[in-house]
Each structure stands twice: as C-alpha cells, then as structure tokens.
Specification:
Largest sheet: 8 strands, mixed
Number of helices: 14
Strand order of the largest sheet: 4-3-2-7-14-15-1-16
Number of strands: 16
Structural class: alpha/beta
Order of helices and strands: EHHEHEHHEEEHEEEHHEHEEHEHEEHHHE
Shape: globular
Length: about 350
C-alpha cells in the first residue's frame, strides 16, 4: 500500500508555507548537485486555469534548499496552437507568467533544439498495447530526477488529467505522442460532412485533401492530432469506438517508460484546485467542477492520481455537476469514459498501486 501525503487547504490556508511539508518526500529522490526536472503544463495560450507560477516557484525554492539544480520544463504539442514549437511554447510560457525570473529557474522545452530523445521501453505491455518504444524527451531523460507538478482536472479523452498523463504524454516527443494518439485517429461520417474544407485548412501535416467534395485522409501523413475533429463545424469527424479507454492504456505504458528512464527517481505532486471540466490544453476556460481541495504528493503516480480522484468524488460538487455527487469517477462520467483504465493499466505494468494510505501534513 502506497503513502499519499495531503496538504488540505481547509486546514492549511497558507499553501506556500504548507508545501514545506513535502520536503522529506522530495529529499528521498533529490541529492545535492542533482539536475532536477520540474515538469508541469504551463497552459495553452488563452487558458486561465493552469498551475500558478508562484506555486511552481515555491517548489523550485524547496528543491534548491535540498541542493538540487532545478529547471522548469514541458514538451511541445502535437496540435498546432501556441505550444506547437519550442519558440512558440517559450513565448506562451512567458505570457502565462513562466520565466526564469518568476520561477527562479531556467524554463526549458524538453524536446527542443539541442536535446536528443532517449528510446525507452515500457516494463511490459498489457491490455493489447502496441507501444513497444517510447521517445523520452531529451531534457527529461538527461535529468537526474524529476518532480512532476500536475494541475488535476477533467479531460475530454481520458476522463481526468493527472500525474500519469502529465508524464506519459507530457514527457515524450511528438512521435511518441502520435504513437499514442493513433488509437484516437478520427473517422469521417460523410453523412454529416458538408465539404466546407475547414478540416483540410486546419491540417498542418498535409494529411487531408478534398476529393469529390469530401476530405480524404493520407494515413501515412496523419499524426492523429485531431485538429480536423476539433475544427469541424458539423462534428463529422468521430472518435473510434472505445478509443478513449485505449488511449489511457497507451498513456500508462508511456508513463512507465519515462519512469524507467529516470530509474524511478520521481515525486508526483497533484494540485487539486481550479478543478475544471476540461484540460489546460484548451485555448479558453471551462467550468469548475468542485471546490479547491489541496495538494497530494507521493512517489507513486497511480496512488496519487487515485487519491486525487477519490477526493474529487467525495467533494462538495458545484452547480450543474452536483447531479454526479452520488457517482464514482465524476470526471470520467462527465466525458463518457471510464477514467480508471489508466490507473488499472499503470498498476498492471508495475508503475504503482491503487491501494493507498492518506497521510495529512
């Protein structure tokens, strides 16, 4: 049974001081002189709900107190918005308040220029996963250890976005993102397609062309970024049946590969606040689901995500989401997906345990 440490906001109104309660946990993986990757999602341009830079700065300062050499990091996206390129991400990060001056550490795009990806394999594959190799982003792979800071929230495809997704999708290259999202490659419902061509215009990979008044897909060029589905005004592009659960299987395997690259020297810290229905990749806000709960931390990503899910499920739900108060997996229910699949898969590949003890700090 894994230990999950909880800083509950209702009992610790000064979160900045309260985060010091995780120092002992951080010291278990950080040694003096270690290069420490502080991994987080710095928010899509236009999204107001990403993790606050001041909280990141507090963790960075704690890492420095332990003698670590931290850098704040994330990877570029598969879809072509503000974080698509290294330059674009750095500009977006600065706009959202993440600079060397604000977080007291370098801001590094882990799959940027000068960093060579490292191939790693999941410990084993289960549940039909075909992901045999994972390209771990260079700056992450070169680090001695990692502190994963996650804004826990809902996610359209995986039900919730927690530590597992932050690592499995967020610490790998575009190729490995595509290798996971291939199970989400959209299928065209021609009965709904009006031939407007907006999906073709949105595809920066040149995978779509108009033919006979309808878009056709070149499977060799398609990276499954889903921009065609997102931009279609008629919802003519559909996700394959069961693809949301399949994506979770791939995410869990990718997360295990990243953990292996760092020899398990990782601490996972979930900020269970600003709990929105949709993820921080959305270029706009989305409704909040529950009140701010606190910060959960553990060396076990499965346990910390399961604890975060349970805390949300048992919280005083707000507004239109109150009808889900009697259900488990509230965030998954919002998106019509069983979001426990990622937890069960990660447990099966040896990444952690869904059994945990909650210890308040």
């Amino acid at each position: 049974m894994s230990s999950v440490y909880l800083l509950r906001y209702s009992k610790n109104p000064n979160v900045f001081e309260g985060l010091r309660g995780f120092v002992n946990l951080l010291s278990e993986v950080i040694s003096k002189g270690d290069r420490v990757a502080v991994k987080l999602h710095m928010g899509e341009l236009g999204n107001p709900h990403y993790l606050r830079p001041a909280l990141v700065r507090r963790v960075v300062d704690l890492v420095k107190e332990l003698g670590g050499k931290p850098f704040v990091t994330d990877t570029t996206t598969l879809y072509p918005l503000g974080r698509f390129t290294e330059k674009g991400y750095l500009e977006t990060a600065a706009y959202n308040g993440f600079t060397r001056e604000t977080v007291n550490a370098p801001v590094v795009i882990a799959d940027g220029a000068g960093y060579e990806a490292v191939l790693e394999r999941p410990a084993r594959t289960v549940m039909g996963c075909q992901l045999r190799e994972v390209e771990v982003a260079g700056a992450v792979a070169e680090a001695d250890c990692m502190v994963v800071l996650t804004h826990f929230k809902g996610h359209l495809l995986t039900g919730f976005g927690g530590a597992l997704k932050n690592v499995g999708m967020g610490c790998v290259t575009k190729k490995s993102k595509s290798d996971q999202h291939v199970v989400n490659r959209p299928i065209l419902d021609e009965s709904l397609c009006t031939g407007c061509g907006k999906c073709v215009q949105s595809c920066v990979y040149g995978a779509l062309k108009m033919k006979g008044g309808k878009p056709t897909m070149d499977l060799e060029k398609c990276v499954s970024c889903n921009m065609c589905r997102i931009t279609c005004p008629n919802e003519a592009w559909k996700l394959p049946e069961g693809s949301k659960e399949k994506l979770q299987v791939y995410v869990a395997h990718a997360a295990s590969a990243v953990s292996r690259a760092l020899e398990g020297r990782v601490v996972y810290v979930n900020f269970i606040q600003d709990i929105t229905a949709l993820c921080d990749c959305r270029p706009s806000g989305s409704p909040r689901v529950a009140e701010d709960i606190g910060v959960a931390a553990s060396p076990d990503p499965v346990a910390v995500d399961k604890a975060s899910m349970d805390l949300v499920d048992s919280s005083e739900l707000l507004g239109e989401f109150r009808k889900f108060a009697g259900l488990r997996d509230v965030l998954g229910n919002l998106h019509g997906v069983d979001s426990t699949v990622q937890l069960k898969t990660a447990e099966k590949v040896g990444l952690g345990s869904t059994d945990y003890t909650l210890i308040e700090v």
